Amino acid sequence: MDIVTQGLLGGVLAQAVATKNEKKIATFVGIVAGLLADVDIFISSSSDPLLNLEFHRHFTHSLLFIPIGAAIAWLILWPLLHRHINKKRLYLFALAGFSMSGVLDACTSYGTHLFWPFTDERVSLSIIAIIDPVFSLILLTTLLLGLRLQHRQLAYGGLTLCMVYLSFGFIQQQRAEQLANELRTKRGHTTEQQVIKPTLANLLLWRSVYVHEQRIYVDALRVGLFSKQQVFTGESVQKFSLQQDMPALDTTTPLYKDIQRFTLFSDDFVAYDPTQRNILGDMRYSMLPTSTKPLWGIYIDKNNPQRHSDYRVFRDRSKNVRLAFINMLSGKCATAVC
Description:
Elements: H1 3-15, H2 23-36, H3 51-55, H4 66-81, H5 87-99, H6 101-106, H7 133-149, H8 152-187, E1 194-198, E2 205-212, E3 215-222, E4 230-232, E5 236-238, H9 242-245, H10 254-265, E6 270-272, E7 279-282, E8 296-299, E9 311-313, H11 319-329
Antiparallel strand pairs: 1-2, 2-3, 3-4, 3-5, 6-7, 7-8, 8-9
């Protein structure tokens, strides 16, 4: 999830193992440790734009890395805090704060190397959005109350609420998946490749992406709490295939390897952006859940196959996009003006 929420979770987890007199220092250590896993964002290369994409949420988010990450946090904080806390307690708070970073990120749809080095498969449960203000608010409230009232039970209660909220996300995902299955049956489509993921900052509006006969279909699914379930029909685009679209591309070139790397990262949901030339996009993500305009992609320069592909991000924050999203979220229509 976002880095703020990771820090909040780390602080609350550290509070859960701290005594009354340790709350402030435990919270500080937990926040720092909770943020530490995301230092992988700084792994980059000016000559290889996809390196950062590959290593974000990689080994630092692995379950096996938890004690190592806690030790790194300990090494950073010990010179600052050695006069106020003993070594074992500092490591305990760092371990608590770091422990759930990878697990929380695995609950989103981005994908996390949770079981590295045993497997390179990305775990993405897709039961919560990468940014969810309700989840973050639960943690923020718990952390502030814990500092003020200094009762360990507050941390337990807040963490329990977080588990309840994630469970609600799982239930909503199952409802959205059932709606997506009904939609495909109605269309006469069959598929073995699909993803159902929540849209930004909510658990009511979901994005369905599936492949039928080498074509990617995207739709918006609204699964409200008490209102009728709704489908907002989206767009479709031809799925990209190296063998069909670029059969002559030399397999030893950086371009070929970059396309393979990006395809693996995108779980094979890749297609050319219908609004931009030579942009191979990750169809799992878009500003609107009904759109095939990707949120990010790589530039395919067929004239320079020996160069690495540029990684590009496309964020359309126009008024029409905002209104269309709000209208779908509220169950009105899939356009800016209903």
